[in-house]
Each structure stands twice: as C-alpha cells, then as structure tokens.
From TrEMBL:
Membrane topology category: Multi-pass membrane protein
Family as reported in the entry's similarity comment: Belongs to the CPA3 antiporters (TC 2.A.63) subunit F family.
Membrane spanning residue stretches: 12-31, 43-60, 66-89
InterPro entries reported for this sequence: MrpF/PhaF-like
Protein name per Swiss-Prot or TrEMBL: Monovalent cation/H+ antiporter complex subunit F
Compartment annotation: Cell membrane
Keywords: Cell membrane, Membrane, Transmembrane, Transmembrane helix, Transport
Species annotation: Streptomyces yanii
Amino acid sequence: MSGPETVDRALLTAAVVLIVIAGAGLLTRVWRGPSMLDRAISLDVCAALIIAGLGAKSAFARDPFYFPIMLVLAFLGFTGSVGIARFIAVRDRPKKTRQQNEGGK
C-alpha cells in the first residue's frame, strides 16, 4: 500500500468509528428522549447516519453502487421528517375556547 492509500484507509476508519459513536448517542436519545419531537429528530439523524455509513462503505470499496440507494434514503428521511413535524404541529395546536369561538363576547 502506498502512502496516500494508507491515509485514505485511516481517515475512512476514523469516519466509521465516528459514525458508530454517533449511532450510540443517537440510540440513547431515542430511548431517553423526553418528548416526541426529540425522538422524531433522532430518527431523522438515524437516516443521515445510515446514509453516511453507506457512503463510507462505498468509499472503502471504491464502488458507486450505493449512491442511488443513498439518494432514496435521503428522500425518505426528508419526507418522514416533514410528515412527523406536521403531525406534531397539528397535535400540539392549542384548542380554541368557547369564548374565542363566539367572537370574544
């Protein structure tokens, strides 16, 4: 192995280690998250970590096979986050009181 290849492998290994550490922190946030919004954001970060892991695997193998899969996962993660945010926004909307419904009489 030449010098640049050794540096590439070391950096990719460090990236994978950081992804694993972030995944462990993510699991604790999903488990302990005090609110539903914390858990939803954690699941969005989970999608990002999966994409990052696939990117690291693709870089190790020097194979672009996983790029379309990463794109689809990014789209699904985004739409899932938007859907959860809309659900939480509707659920947490304050209820109108009877006085507000009657026009403030």
